[in-house]
Design a protein that fits this description.
With 180 residues, this protein is mainly beta. The strands form 4 sheets. Strands 1, 2, 5, 6 and 7 form a 5-stranded mixed β-sheet that branches. The chain starts with a strand and ends with a strand.
Length: 180
């Protein structure tokens, strides 16, 4: 399911007096610094939670439409207001950080007896072959045993998604820990 949010913001050179801008397109990197309304950005952050960085947005610059993903979101530690956010021009094959989610934890016998899952890595760097980017990578915790590690090689990734180059096959995502 392709999830593209229509026009997060529009830049037009006629209104350059109200924006601070620097535009250059070099390879995959598009730099466009705009005084974006913090309310819009905070609304998107609250709506998307952990999957904010792997959501596709359509940006309109002087009539040209670009697909972008937010990267490197800086947040004020005192009040959680965004200080800045970079948007990267998205092309299929770019690296994305996709959040990991554990499903069927209520059906696991060990978890019913008091065990719990320790999330070691909350994100997995992936490469998507098209515009179909999953919100989360879902891991089935139904058949896990106590003190078992959840590794990347044990996870079934959605179609069109593969681990990024440099992510090892024995990459640990979590561990089911028994109570003491």
């Amino acid at each position: 399911m392709v999830q593209i949010i229509k026009v997060l913001f529009t830049y037009n050179s006629k209104f350059s007096y109200s924006f601070t801008y620097s535009y250059s397109l070099q390879g995959n990197v598009m730099k466009l610094v705009i005084g974006l309304d913090k309310k819009i950005l905070m609304k998107e952050m609250r709506l998307r939670h952990m999957s904010f960085e792997n959501t596709l947005y359509e940006m309109n610059v002087n009539g040209t439409k670009y697909m972008v993903t937010p990267r490197q979101l800086q947040v004020n530690p005192l009040n959680d207001e965004p200080l800045g956010c970079n948007f990267l021009h998205y092309k299929p094959g770019n690296k994305l950080r996709i959040p990991v989610e554990f499903m069927n934890t209520d059906l696991n016998v060990c978890i019913r007896r008091g065990s719990y899952i320790v999330k070691i890595n909350r994100y997995l760097e992936c490469v998507c072959s098209g515009l179909d980017i999953p919100k989360t990578i879902q891991i089935d915790a139904k058949d896990l045993q106590d003190d078992s590690l959840i590794r990347l090689k044990d996870v079934i990734l959605p179609p069109g998604v593969s681990p990024a180059k440099g992510v090892p096959h024995d990459y640990v995502l979590g561990k089911l820990t028994a109570p003491k």
